[in-house]
């Protein structure tokens, strides 16, 4: 059983490695590798399910040791299989087999054939790990893998501007709401003294573990979990990103947004059911969000002009009903509902191109009259109200505009005020050299001082303040991607130094974080320096399309981006957990700046990659 559950996670990742190494040399080879991997995954899942049934349906918890262990911290690798895992794992395996088979023909002779299958199997590795993760830290690793693979698949048609923009919008929503799970992992170490193990997570365990004076922390932890679930499942007010994600290929839309990924938030609430059910505020929030989402998604879906948009909003509305069911405590009913919705929406998305063609052929027949019923419930409303509701739904309830105005724009305005950046200011290469030389000199000076300073929580707070300062500068810089990238690197460096300066015993913790940041920072700077005319990039904030003329540079820069934002396969991810855990030891490390940097640096780094490497090729223009 240990080997089988371990292979469920490792096999998709090994498949990704094989596809990346093979490249685009042969569609038949890539298809063969994908098909064989999918078959083996199905056999492993079947074997695990049979073993679970033979074991009288008892929950299975397996411990594989520790990814990292020290005197004050442990990152256990524990896998857990129960009824919820059975539902999610079986349906994901079946849907992935259908999608892989469908994609082999649908994407035939597509330029990014191997790139698509690499992203698909990266997603499958994340979904498998999400299904059987035994701890919240491991669950968060799977959560991040799903988020990155979503960005890659939405922006699959990378030579066009709109798919890339929609991919950035989806990733920005993911990153902002992932802050809930990021801080939730931190709080879980404080409340449960070692983190959350799903095998032990029962209402009795939660009540016994929480001291009466810390009961308010359960409410805060519950709200953080609900926030992450709302973002990943496209619930109010984050519903707008899901229809935009349909810019990706139809098979990825089926497996991601109509099927599996949009239900990841529901699965998070099911996994943490014993925690947030202890908070009346969280229960009310889950129920209210589900109700509002179901109503708004139904309204917006009725005004969509594309079949994919209609299916997306229908799926959002059904997930809203699942939130309502969880609010009433109907966990088994929600599992059944989720499984039915996954199969239905995946089927609808896969057949949507054929259905549209069939309708067009039917309408183009000579002397064909299409009778459309004029009756609808909306006709019972007054004309003015009906018109206003139509405009409101056509603008998708103004959710995206509202979030941009009240959440993202104030943050960007604050950063611009600090650094005096102007949107239409004239670019001067002398300013670039002055800022670049000054930033490098200042960084070297501060880095040298930090290494010579005594270990102290006060210095760690100063280091975190410098990290936040550099992160805000990266957000406000509008002319030079080289400055943006180096500002992100400096910000991440100071974050790692924060661990180092807390205590001499935390030296290796800081080293682990920096071992993931520094190589990616340096290599990324070298790649940008090798781009033609890189000093003048970003004057018009256009997508540059480097991947079309230098695909190897774009691929290596993607690896550097994943490393610096804390992708789970890099030491940076473990270092972020160590950075959070340092606060649980009673130090003065401020937790809010860490969360802000997690969001800011992640969004800005991915935006830099998208601006440089994706979109139409403008280097030769």
Reading the helices and strands in chain order gives: HHEEHHHHHHHHHHHHHHHHHHHHHHH
Report the end-to-end length measured between terminal Cα atoms. 57 Å
Q: Could you tell me the strand content as a percent range?
A: under 5%
| Sequence stretches where pLDDT stays below 50 over 5 or more residues | 422-434
Q: State the helix count.
A: 25
Overall residue-averaged pLDDT value:
83
Number of strands: 2
Explain how this protein is built.
The chain is mostly helical and 621 residues long. 72% of the residues lie in helices and 3% in strands. It has a two-stranded antiparallel ribbon with strand order 1-2. A hairpin with a 4-residue loop joins strand 1 and strand 2 (74-81).
Keywords summarizing the entry:
two-stranded antiparallel sheet, 621 residues, mainly alpha, 25 helices
Task: Record the SSE blueprint.
Blueprint: H1 2-22, H2 27-54, E1 60-69, E2 74-81, H3 83-106, H4 113-132, H5 136-154, H6 161-192, H7 203-209, H8 215-232, H9 241-244, H10 250-260, H11 264-271, H12 273-276, H13 280-301, H14 307-327, H15 331-363, H16 383-394, H17 399-419, H18 429-452, H19 457-476, H20 481-502, H21 507-529, H22 546-549, H23 551-565, H24 571-584, H25 591-613
Antiparallel strand pairs: 1-2
